[in-house]
Write a structure and sequence with these properties.
The chain is mainly alpha-helical. It is built from seven helices and no strands.
Length: 118
Amino acid sequence: MPLISLGEFKEMEALRIKKMMERELSWTGPIASSFEATRKESSRPCSFLLVLKEWREPSFEEFSTRTTWSLFNAFTSVLRDRATLQPAKYAVQTIRLNAMLEPTSTVIDKEVLAVTSA
């Protein structure tokens, strides 16, 4: 994997998040994504309904738009305890979620995903 500077990484991440914030979703998108994430073990099976609830009734006003970004945040809100209890597993899960929700994600995500899937 080619090395990039921190500045380049920040620019790539800002662009990725901007795209996610702009891509609107229909009601079926979150259902399909939640189901697929559960199937691929990106989240626990019991999280399926919790993610949908968080997406429909977000805890934070800034995630009330129906976008890929708000869906990603619904997932991470439901999985937030794992960030402190199992940080490595949480990191892998959020990388997988990024790859699933944003298939045109950065090369870094794709290469990390390949390593974590092995």
